[in-house]
Write a structure and sequence with these properties.
The chain is an alpha/beta fold and 234 residues long. Helices cover 35% and strands 18% of the residues. The protein has a 7-stranded mixed beta sheet, sandwiched between helices. Strand 1, helix 3 and strand 2 form a beta-alpha-beta unit. It is globular.
């Protein structure tokens, strides 16, 4: 199997994704914002954003370490991961806000829809799904108008240090012409990323415009903000 150094074993990857509709709320976007835009979703996982956005007339690329594995492997892994995650959800229901989803059964249905749309699109247009290992991306400078990054940066701050976060954000901005949006701003214990202010100060020092924004989506308690990082207009 082809791959890169640092590629995770498939068992260590959690292949669960969000739907296109969740992305619109997570990143405070409207469909009209996407049309004609070159967009990077990184890490994209099992999300359906790429599949649905390309149908609308966007040019979206999905990037993730998971894509080093075959679509068949990921399809099986995604089903297993959803079953496991939902079986554990009973124990941690109080960590979540049950407004967007009516129940665990509803959540399960939505997660399966995202996975199915993702796998179907991978088979239809595999060139859209690029294997990467942050903080290194195989794309040209300013290759995308907008970059979206969900449920990775900040969430795993117990195992990914500040230097990794800074390098990853800088790399994501290198390939972004206009704006990078990151969601959410909390870790797995629902606490605001401890080094977020330090990171923001460094990005501002580098000349970026940075803003914390409340979004109309909250499932994990306290996870209702995104970080907008923009290139300053010359």
């Amino acid at each position: 199997m082809s791959g890169a150094e640092g590629k995770l074993e498939l068992e260590r990857i959690v292949f669960i994704g969000r739907t296109f509709e969740e992305y619109l709320q997570m990143f405070n976007l409207k469909e009209a914002d996407l049309v004609g835009q070159r967009i990077l979703d990184c890490p994209a996982g099992a999300c359906s954003f790429t599949a649905r956005s390309n149908q609308l007339g966007s040019d979206v690329t999905a990037a993730d370490i998971a894509y080093y594995y075959s679509t068949d492997e990921l399809a099986d892994k995604g089903v297993q991961d959803i079953v496991h995650a939902m079986s554990e959800m009973d124990k941690v229901q109080d960590n979540f806000v049950w407004d967007y989803f009516e129940s665990i059964a509803d959540l399960t249905q939505v997660r399966n829809k995202a996975l199915n749309d993702n796998i179907k699109d991978q088979r239809l247009a595999p060139e859209r799904y690029v294997p990467v290992v942050l903080p290194d991306l195989p794309f040209n400078d300013e290759a995308f108008d907008l970059t979206l990054s969900a449920h990775f940066l900040f969430m795993y701050s117990d195992r990914l240090d500040y230097d990794f976060h800074l390098k990853s954000v800088n790399e994501l901005m290198r390939v972004t012409k206009e704006e990078l949006r990151i969601f959410p701003l909390v870790d797995l214990s629902c606490k605001r990323y401890a080094h977020l202010d330090r990171l923001i100060d460094e990005l501002v020092r580098q000349g970026f415009a940075v803003e914390e924004m409340v979004v109309p989506y909250e499932f994990q308690k306290g996870a209702n903000q995104m970080l907008s990082i923009r290139r300053m207009k010359p």
